[in-house]
Amino acid sequence: MNVNIPKHIAIIMDGNGRWGKSRGLTRSEGHYAGAKAMEKVIDASIDLGVNVLTLYAFSSENWSRPKDEVNYLMRLPVKFFNQKLPEFMKRNCQIRISGNMDSLPNNTKDALNRAVEKTKNNDGLIVNFAFNYGGRDDILQAVCAVIKEVKKNNIDLETMDEAMFNRFLYTRDLPDPDLIIRTGGEKRVSNFLLWQSSMSELYFSDVYFPDFDERHLKEAIKGCRHMVTQ
Ligand code: IPE
Ligand code: IPE
Ligand code: MG
Questions:
Q1: For a 10 Å CB count at each end of the chain, is N or C smaller?
Q2: Nearest-angstrom CA–CA distance, 101 and 114
Q3: What UniProt keywords are attached to this protein's entry (predicted)?
Q4: Domain annotation covers residue 221
């Protein structure tokens, strides 16, 4: 493809439930199909030479869904990483998590931590899962962490700037996303990367996430004219 490849692509993977419903399946089956599509998008990102792929998998608002669905979404990373960790290793992917890990069930937290730990020395594509992530929560927890450091005299508030504040966010040292894609037809940001998206280009696709593939990803990239990081 004769276009600039965004260094950091972030995807709001929406439409799993409607995909299931449209096929006479359950919402959970839609989420399972979404996890399969995730693998394809990861492979395509590696082929295209993307550096960071952030995938919005569970928002801080998603706790308000029916209990069964929340339970399924909490079990999904356990199943996903149990099966896929060897492939992430083979593909040299580094897994990261952005989000509030404290309030997750232990087995979900363990599966996520294990994936991060096992892949931490890989230097290929960074796959950053936004899990139990909310943009407002991200900013608020960063502010609280800064206050703690100031109280301990580890930071002089006079020296605080955007670059320093960045290091307190869940995304830490990752570059801001150049391109944010939302699948599933809704045109909302749904509390995703509020600070980090200040200069990002937004791309909305009507395709439900389980149907989103390399072709759609390339289409989104083709339209991306503005790169945050040169
Ligand atoms: C997005 O798909 C995945 C998660 C929020 C976990 P949805 O579950 O929101 O699917 P729709 O939007 O209801 O179709
Ligand atoms: C955004 O989708 C969150 C994720 C993809 C994880 P939602 O379906 O949860 O967003 P709303 O509720 O339509 O805003
Ligand atoms: Mg949705």
A1: C
A2: 13
A3: Magnesium, Metal-binding, Transferase
A4: yes
